[in-house]
Amino acid sequence: MAAMPLHDYEELKALQKRWLILWSYPWEQPVDDIKDYFGERIALYFLYLQHYVTLLIVPAVLGFITYAVKVVFVKPENFLMPYFTAFMVLWSTFFIEFWKQRQSDAAMRWGVVGYEEEEQDRPQFEGKATTSPVDGSDTTYFPSDEKFRRYLYVNLIIFLMLCGVILIVAAIFTFQYFVVSNPTAFPSIGGISLGTTIVSLLNAVVIAVLNYVYINIAIYWNDYENHRTDTVYEDALITKIFTFQLVNSFAALTYVSFIKSYIGGIYCTKDNCIGDAASTLSTVFLSSLITRAIVEVVVRKFLQDQKEADETSGLLPGVEPTPIEQQYVLNEYELINGTLKDYAGLVMQYGFTVLFVGAFPLAPTLAFISGYIQIRIDGWKLCQAHRRPIPKIAEDIGTWQFMIEVLSLLGVMYNFGLICFTAHYLKNFRWELRWLIFLSVEHITFVIKYVLAEVIDDIPETVQMQTNRSEFLVSKVLQNVEDDIEVDDVVDESQRQHSNIIIYETDLDWTDPIGSDYSSSAAIM
Questions:
Q1: Which among 139, 151, 415, 497 is most buried, taking Cβ atoms within 10 Å?
Q2: Is the four-CA dihedral 263, 268, 271, 276 of positive or negative sign?
Q3: Would the pTM of this model clear 0.85, i.e. be above it?
């Protein structure tokens, strides 16, 4: 048994005709139509994906040119790399600020501004039924000391799991040390060491497996924390997932980029740690793209066919399942297998692109290709492989926005660290001078990013004006807020009570006909 919204195949067919197009510009998605059919939360995800892919066009082209120059000149140090790295560091700020504008515009157009302030409690929220000491309404009380105790307990467990991830990464690179120390233990194919390739693939597999396992563990402990609203619940879950994936996905690359060359007995290939970091990143990047395509399309289609065969095995020969039964056998589109996992993949990909572009300039190009394909895969998945989701409201992407800003700031330190310490651009400089250059450039960049963030409005003036007007009309029409009256003005009490704002002619039906003076009403047409 299941309770689910049903697909309207006429509307769905029309949406797919406008949306699931193989070749189209990323900014041509019918996001408003997606909102009307699937709800604001899913539409907001596709709006973010559209914004992400669109703004990657310029970095993708410049990154490809930078990488091509390196291939043509066959030099470990690319003279374009420092300039391209500085561009990407500033690009991340424009990406975030322009997204804030698009997000606020969508929230205004869709009428969801202020939704989180009026959100109701989750049905799963547990506590003691009581009366609010503020307004006397019925509410559910959960003791703050119990909440704090659970919070500490859960975070201790997460900390121990993060320590476990670091130990696993250390084990992988201990194996790499064995490979480097015993070059004859693994053969080379086409000049590429099989042992080094195994280490990179092993690292990619471990990242994927740990991310998959941890998500389910994070859900369990997030439920244990007992959050009041869906927004708070999802923000807490996002924080747990992001923190783990940040360490799990970037620990190995951080080690290769900044630590490996300073450990005795461990050397980078041809004394080129930038090359090792690029090799590791490209392996992780490409393996994640291939894995996602296989899991989202091939495996999902296979499991769907198996489920459909199992559900229809008891039907009499010649009897076809009804349209409702056909929808029933589709997979449910829930929080974890839906937008949360999609956001997590996009944010981690953004991290690879922004943090390590100084080592692998082709990362924005691969991210653009991946994002372009993901628009089609996710659209197909929603329209063909899932039941119609229960529409849910959202006014922003929640904590994911903060995580993106964190990665943008880390990108400054990581990329200039790669240029100043890992690469050989400043190899003839003393360490003191390298640190001075690094700290100076880093701080100047932080100041520039801060100025840009302040200069570029999060909410465009036109959007803010329309939002203020909507709030004004709501306060007058629905909340019956009185107009401000000057002290010197003398207004008859009965006339003031019957001064109404009329938007439609039927609004006159709201007023009391006894003693009403409609001539005193203010009409807004």
A1: 415
A2: negative
A3: no
